[in-house]
Amino acid sequence: MIWVAWRQQRLQFLVSALLIAAVGAVMVFYRFDAVSFMEDRGIAGCLRIGSDPCTSSAMAALSSEYKTYVSFLPMVLLCLPVLLGMFAGAPLFAREFEQGTHVFGLTQSVGRRRWWATKLLVGGGPVAVLMLFLGVIGVWALKPLNHVTRGPLLTPGFETQGLVLGAYTVLAFAIGVAAGMLFRNTLAAMAITLGLYLVVLLALGGGLRPHYFSPERTTGTVAQSTGESERGGKSWIPDDAWRVGSAYYDDEGRKVSFNPSGCDGTESIQSCLTKQGVRQQAAEYYPATRFWAFQTAESTAFLTVAAALLALSAWSLRRRVL
Fold first, then answer.
1. Which of 101, 145, 161, 239 places its Cα 20 to 30 Å from the Cα of 120?
2. Residue 209: DSSP 8-state
3. Is residue 48 within 8 Å of residue 147, measured between CB atoms?
4. pTM confidence score
């Protein structure tokens, strides 16, 4: 049964493996290129704006050199999981039903459960492992460009490296499998995979991610929170942190509102804040050191949804007439 499943899925696997390998090779190349660029300019090891030599101008030169690459790469990595789900997961069972080949497979002393599990493991397991490996490579490859990506916690950098890349692939594959099992039509399953994957990605990633953990909070005067120029361009919170909230207070500690449109464009942000009665500012943020905690939490959430979808496909296989 394993050999038959491999023969059926080998073309999709080989194409997927070559695509993943090509993306990985590009990331490795740019990793070494960025390290060489930073060594030539004496900023090796600089991950954010700080003291000399990691000055604002030096880091701006790094951003200018690699901004095109950093803008293009996430688009590719964001598309990979859903493409693999559409072209590997959706046809896995739907095509069998369309062509009637499932009847032959299930009459060769192979039970439904074994048929289902074997095709899943052979068709999806290797691809998920490769994408997980690509995500881990991404953490290593993008680390020298931490300043250019604005840190590993911000979108789209977070979604395109680490454990979540493998978890997203498992989810997209599971959606394709469940849709193919329920609707028994390859095109319908592919369309559902694309739509449902985007819905889950936005709902979990965009809606729940800020609530996985409690953010850190810092408070300072207007001068402290806006004096980036006096600090050489360095923000009052780490510039690779994920800022999730701000609050403004007057002299007596009462919360006040700040309207950026009230600034006339010629005054500094500090003057504008002061003019509107703001004396202190608070910021809530997640430091970049929470990257792996967020990766683990989000991967667990996506794998849980994927497991539920695979359970649904198993239930459908057991209950429906084939």
1. 161
2. G
3. yes
4. 0.86
Residue for token digits 């300043």?
A: 147
Q: Can you give the length of the chain in residues?
A: 322
| pLDDT per position as a tens digit, 16-34 | 899 999 999 999 999 999 9
Sign of the dihedral defined by the CA atoms of residues 264, 269, 270, 276, in that order: positive
Q: How far apart are CA 290 and CA 153, in angstroms?
A: 8
Q: Are 48 and 54 in contact (CB under 8 A)?
A: yes
Instruction: Give per-residue pLDDT as tens, 300-317.
Output: 999 999 999 999 988 887
Distance CA 277, CA 23 (A): 51
Q: What is the pLDDT of residues 97-122, one digit of tens each?
A: 776 665 555 556 666 777 777 888 88
* DSSP 8-state assignment for residue 215: P
Q: Which two tokens stand for residue 51?
A: 């003291």
Helical (H) or strand (E) element with 80: helix 56-84
Residue 264: count other Cβ atoms within 10 Å of its Cβ.
9
Q: Indicate the SS3 state at residue 283.
A: strand
